[in-house]
Automatic annotation (TrEMBL):
<keyword id="KW-0998">Cell outer membrane</keyword>
<keyword id="KW-0732">Signal</keyword>
<dbReference type="Pfam" id="PF14322">
    <property type="entry name" value="SusD-like_3"/>
</dbReference>
<dbReference type="GO" id="GO:0009279">
    <property type="term" value="C:cell outer membrane"/>
</dbReference>
<comment type="similarity">
    <text>Belongs to the SusD family.</text>
</comment>
<dbReference type="Pfam" id="PF07980">
    <property type="entry name" value="SusD_RagB"/>
</dbReference>
<feature type="domain" description="SusD-like N-terminal">
    <location>
        <begin position="77"/>
        <end position="206"/>
    </location>
</feature>
<feature type="domain" description="RagB/SusD">
    <location>
        <begin position="248"/>
        <end position="562"/>
    </location>
</feature>
<dbReference type="InterPro" id="IPR033985">
    <property type="entry name" value="SusD-like_N"/>
</dbReference>
<dbReference type="InterPro" id="IPR011990">
    <property type="entry name" value="TPR-like_helical_dom_sf"/>
</dbReference>
<dbReference type="InterPro" id="IPR012944">
    <property type="entry name" value="SusD_RagB_dom"/>
</dbReference>
<keyword id="KW-0472">Membrane</keyword>
<protein>
    <submittedName>
        <fullName>RagB/SusD domain-containing protein</fullName>
    </submittedName>
</protein>
Length: 562
């Protein structure tokens, strides 16, 4: 029994409602003595919104991201039940579910001593968290262990998996309860937790992941009809640290240097400012996905010039990826190997360019750097305090449009939702249709392609792409295409620059999902293959149940193929 307890601790700790010391609030006592007053309950509610429980999807699992020549278990098809990330997701998700269950089952202790509106807020947040986290488990694993009770050790050891369709209905119900109890917003003195809009929006996300388009449509519309959220007027500014709590952000994890809650961003920063020069970089796949300013993909638009890939592109391209020869963090950014000196605007003079591989071998392997959200405050110990946005209004609008497209309900509201997002990117009002490439098509297949491309352009480097490629069932295509970058310097000069082919030697074809085929450039010997991506379908559309859970509990079966 001692061995069993050790091996099964990750699951038990969650389902029984305790936690290891690094996650357990030191001020919180046992559930028998706790929840006796509003202060204790509020502390417990705040606890279920700690960032450790809200990690989101990783861009490294997608085709939007490169880490030089490295891959992840998702992108090299080595994912298994021993993977540390998978085990952390399972354990922490069940921990926060257990805490939500415990909260809901102890609310009677403060009945009559706390205003009902306060109790409703507490309960609404607990229902919201339970819904969001069971939804996350179903998305990752399919059928999972489901309980709304506080379980004993013996019960936890013997529970089997519940059909995901049963859990799905419970998730929808929890979101509905949360929406009925939560406020539309919080006062200036209150902790900013989940809101009514967040419950509707997260319900829409889960429903669209499950292919329940009518439910997704209605949940997104309910969020829109609140009239609380709106698009922030300037796309690029939305992601900066200085833009705090805009109405577009529906749900986020706050970060703050004063509270020592930051994230390390050195991998994203140029080498000229002491960063690691694109160790974590946007992929060429992502760069090629941005439309031109005429609304056409690069293989159809006469505006696209592969030698100047940032010109005449959707503004979100230059807002997400640093354009060549532009001023970035007070340096000129230019990865061209002949550019060995660049302007340092801090000193007003030229200096050695550490962001080209002819000077620094570990400068960005594909020449690209992230720009979205990057600001000078990132240079303070290479730590950033930008809030982690988990849901924003643009996603609600595009989920509404997608659900309507998939249901065959193509009407003016679909164009209005999609064009609102696109017009904001161009900095104009939605009705100024001559100032941006307004979407007018009513063809379902064409709109599906446009919608998928719009999502990719809008949400680059926001942790959205993984959910999209899994639910669209295109991961087997995009993650079986290799990662490419620039040739080594000598070959680059000989085969590309000397032939006047900088930056891209040819224009790739873009398919119906907005995905570029970069292989012809490699086959022509004009680019370097950095890594061979692999994705095994249908197996990898679900993650495996952690191996230690299968080992301990004979009532748990593994997902197919693992």
């Amino acid at each position: 029994m001692k061995l069993k307890s050790i091996l099964y601790s990750a699951f038990l700790v969650g389902m029984v409602g305790c936690a290891d010391l690094d996650l357990n609030p030191l001020s919180e006592g046992s559930s028998e003595a706790w929840y006796s007053n509003a202060t204790e309950v509020e502390m417990s509610v705040n606890d279920i919104f700690r960032s450790v429980f809200w990690q989101g999807y990783d861009d490294a699992w997608t085709d939007d991201f490169t880490n030089r020549e490295a891959l992840t278990p998702v992108t090299n098809a080595t994912i298994n039940g021993e993977w540390g990330t998978l085990n952390t997701v399972w354990a922490n998700t069940y921990k926060v579910i257990a805490r939500s269950n415990t909260l809901l089952l102890n609310m009677d202790k403060i009945q009559g001593t706390v205003p009902q509106a306060t109790i409703d807020k507490y309960m609404g947040n607990a229902h919201f968290v339970r819904a969001a986290k069971y939804g996350e488990l179903v998305f990752y694993f399919g059928d999972v262990i489901y309980s709304t009770d506080i379980l004993s050790l013996e019960e936890a050891f013997t529970m089997g998996r519940t059909d995901k369709n049963t859990i799905k209905e419970a998730v929808y119900q929890d979101f509905d309860v949360a929406a009925s109890l939560l406020p539309e917003s919080y006062g200036s003195s209150e902790n900013k937790l989940a809101t009514k809009g967040a419950a509707y929006a997260m319900k829409a996300r889960f429903a669209i992941q499950m292919g329940d388009f009518a439910i997704a449509r209605d949940a997104a519309k309910a969020c829109m009809d609140l009239g609380v959220h709106e698009l922030y007027p300037i796309y690029e500014e939305l992601f900066l640290t200085s833009t705090r709590n805009p109405s577009e952000v529906i749900f986020a994890m706050p970060r703050s240097r004063s509270l020592n809650v930051t994230w390390n961003v050195r991998n994203y920063l140029p080498r000229n400012v002491g960063g690691w020069g694109g160790a974590f970089a946007p992929s060429w796949d992502l760069l090629h996905a941005y439309l031109c300013t005429d609304g056409l993909p690069i293989d159809e638009s006469p505006l696209y010039d592969p030698k100047n890939p940032f010109e005449n592109r959707d503004p979100r391209c230059a807002a997400t990826i640093v354009p060549f020869q532009s001023r970035h963090l007070n340096f000129t950014y230019q990865p061209h190997p002949d550019t060995t000196q660049v302007m340092n605007f801090n000193t007003g003079s030229y200096q050695t360019n550490n962001d080209t591989r002819s000077v620094a071998a570990f400068a960005s392997f594909n020449g690209l750097l992230r720009k979205k959200g990057v600001d000078e405050d990132w240079l303070l110990n290479y730590q950033a305090e930008n809030d982690e946005i988990l849901m924003r209004y643009a996603d609600v609008l595009l989920m509404y449009a997608e659900a309507k497209i998939e249901l065959g309900e193509i009407d003016g509201s679909v164009h209005e939702a999609m064009n609102s997002v696109r017009a904001r990117a161009y900095g104009v009002a939605v009705e100024q249709v001559t100032e941006y490439p307004a979407i007018t098509s009513s063809d379902q297949a064409e709109l599906r392609t446009i919608l998928r491309t719009e999502r990719r352009m809008e949400f680059g480097f926001e942790g959205v792409r993984y959910s999209d490629i899994i639910r669209w069932k295109i991961a087997e295509k995009v993650l079986n295409r290799d990662v490419y970058g620039m040739l080594d310097v000598a070959e680059l000069k000989e085969k590309v620059i000397d032939q006047d082919l900088w930056f891209f030697p040819m224009t790739p074809e873009i398919d119906e999902d907005g995905v570029a085929d970069l292989s012809p450039m490699y086959e022509a010997g004009l680019v370097k293959r950095l890594a061979i991506r692999q994705f095994e379908a249908p197996k990898q559309y679900l993650w495996p149940i952690p191996s230690k859970e299968i080992l301990i509990n004979s009532n748990l079966d593994q997902n197919p193929g693992y």
